[in-house]
Design goal:
Helix 2 packs antiparallel against helix 5, helix 3 crosses helix 4 and helix 3 runs parallel beside helix 5. By secondary structure, this protein is mainly α. The chain has six helices and three strands; from the N terminus they run αααβββααα. About 35% of the residues are buried. It is about 60% helix and about 10% strand. It has one domain: Up-down Bundle (Four Helix Bundle (Hemerythrin (Met), subunit A)), CATH 1.20.120. This is DUF3806 domain-containing protein.
Amino acid sequence: MNEEELQQIEANVSLAIDRLGPVSDVDFGLNEESVEWVDGFIERQRARPDFDLERIGGLVGVLGSFLGACIVAATGGSWRWSEEDGWGVLLPDGTVAFPFVKVRKQFRDGAEEGESIAGFYRVAVDYIATGKLREAREGGA
């Protein structure tokens, strides 16, 4: 794990809160309401005539860091590095959520193709981290 990269993730989270909080209409922070606002923000960016998927790497980094921090705050998870998949959030049930991948997918494919960071957040927090998804798969729910 690279401590410098973790510090960059933390800096990205602060940047997201500092820049997006004042322009949002919600109590912006590490919460579901803010994730939903950012979900809409991504869709609004995709709709811009000058939107260029090739030029959003920095934005994916900032928003992925923010999404991951929201999941960490809600679940008590922690950031983990994977050689195959990069940075993810280790959830209490042992699975890993990859917020940067999801942000990039929503930018690429959009909500109309089923890519939503708000949905990703809810599934990670309400079903995966709690073990409810595993229980349902095993027939216990």
